[in-house]
């Protein structure tokens, strides 16, 4: 019997280099404070997986919660106003370093902590957002790990078209308040190569999300492209249910969408990036400046396919497409 999840090939894990030297004298005997602001929900399994990755990696680097570090973790659950409130709370706790998971998290902390060190992850375009001066030399007090490269937009569309060759239209689902600006131009640049009609489907909340997808599904031959952002992560169950109800083939940005029932995904693992970000947190706690730590771009991409969902949608996936998958969910 084939296992539920089968790995098709192994990626080389190129973790960011961590400083392998003992704690400085100023740090020894002191409890260092870390503030974390994340866009997911506290009870979400993926949010917890990311949290555990941070704790695990920090432990490997010699930091233990309650012994020499204290971590304040806040989830804003897709509510941008709550993100601002929680950011203020974290800054008031006087942390030694801040970890921001998602673009809105960075923005909220940056406005309240112009000098505190901030390490980010799940950010698509830190230069365009004004967080850093450049990837190689970020300058200022912010650096971290990105989740997106412009070439990914073409890959999303190509894979979706291979899985569902009958589609003629694709809805780009995003929240205008939280989605990085680089995403739409990248998709627009890639769309002519796959000969699809691009239909922007902006949504600010769950009600608008349901309306946008249902309205798009009223016409035939459509597929969905879900942008990588905190908003669809928080509302992924609704998105998955709508895609299934309207029989819409969909490309998702993160692997857990597929393990939760989505058709396919191509992108990075958020929990993996969370673990990598702990390396930079460690280096800052040991005296490094964010300005001197280059922004790290994705070094591992995963392509997942859900055969059960493909069958439910009546799709016959080409063997060449299946062969490309790193994991297959059955």
Task: Please explain how this structure is put together.
- By secondary structure, the protein is an alpha/beta fold.
- It folds into two domains: 173 residues, Response regulator (Rossmann fold); 144 residues, Response regulator (Rossmann fold, 3-Layer(aba) Sandwich), CATH 3.40.50.2300.
- The protein contains twelve helices and 13 strands.
- Strands 1-13-12-11-10-9-7-8 form an eight-stranded mixed sheet, sandwiched between helices.
- Helix 3 links the parallel strand 4 and strand 5.
- Helix 2 crosses helix 3, helix 4 packs across helix 5 and helix 6 packs parallel to helix 8.
- CATH class of the largest domain reads Alpha Beta
CATH fourth-tier homologous superfamily of the largest domain = Response regulator
What share of the residues lie within helices?
Answer: 25-40%
Mean pLDDT figure: 89
What's the N-to-C terminus distance? 11 Å
- Would you tell me which CATH topology of the largest domain applies? Rossmann fold
Which spans of ≥5 residues are poorly predicted at pLDDT below 50? 1-28
Total number of helices: 12
Radius of gyration based on Cα positions: 20 Å
What is the N-to-C order of secondary-structure elements (H for helix, E for strand)? EEHEHEHEEHEHEHEHHEHEHEHHE
Structural class: alpha/beta
Number of domains: 2
The main pleated sheet reads as: 8 strands, mixed
Give the strand content.
Answer: 15-25%
Approximate shape: elongated
Total strand segments: 13
Strand arrangement within the widest β-sheet reads 1-13-12-11-10-9-7-8
What is the correct CATH architecture of the largest domain?
3-Layer(aba) Sandwich
């Amino acid at each position: 019997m084939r296992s539920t999840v089968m790995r098709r090939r192994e990626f080389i894990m190129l973790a960011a280099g961590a400083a392998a030297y003992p704690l400085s004298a100023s740090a020894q005997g002191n409890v260092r404070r870390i503030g974390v602001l994340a866009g997911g929900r506290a009870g979400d399994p993926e949010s917890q997986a990311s949290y555990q990755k941070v704790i695990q990696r920090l432990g490997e680097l010699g930091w233990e919660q309650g012994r020499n570090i204290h971590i304040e973790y806040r989830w804003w659950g897709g509510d941008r106003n709550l993100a601002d409130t929680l950011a203020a709370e974290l800054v008031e706790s006087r942390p030694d370093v801040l970890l921001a998971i998602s673009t809105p998290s960075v923005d909220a902390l940056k406005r309240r902590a112009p000098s505190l060190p901030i390490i980010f992850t799940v950010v698509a375009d830190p230069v365009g957002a004004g967080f850093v001066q450049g990837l190689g030399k970020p300058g200022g007090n912010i650096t971290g790990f990105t989740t997106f490269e412009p070439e990914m937009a073409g890959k999303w569309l190509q894979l979706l078209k291979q899985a569902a060759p009958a589609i003629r239209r694709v809805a780009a689902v995003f929240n205008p308040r939280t989605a990085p600006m680089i995403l739409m131009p990248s998709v627009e640049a890639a769309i002519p190569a796959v000969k699809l009609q691009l239909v922007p489907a902006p949504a600010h909340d769950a009600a608008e999300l349901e309306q946008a997808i249902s309205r798009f599904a009223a016409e035939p031959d459509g597929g969905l492209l879900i942008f990588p952002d905190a908003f669809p992560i928080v509302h992924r169950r609704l998105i998955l249910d709508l895609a299934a109800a309207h029989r819409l083939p969909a490309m998702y940005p993160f692997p857990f969408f597929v393990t939760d029932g989505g058709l396919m995904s191509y992108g990075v693992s958020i929990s993996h990036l969370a673990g990598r970000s702990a390396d930079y947190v460690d280096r800052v706690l040991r005296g490094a400046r964010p300005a001197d730590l280059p922004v790290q771009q994705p070094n591992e991409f995963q392509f997942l396919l859900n055969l059960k969902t493909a069958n439910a949608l009546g799709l016959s996936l080409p063997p060449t497409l299946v062969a490309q998958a790193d994991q297959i969910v059955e």
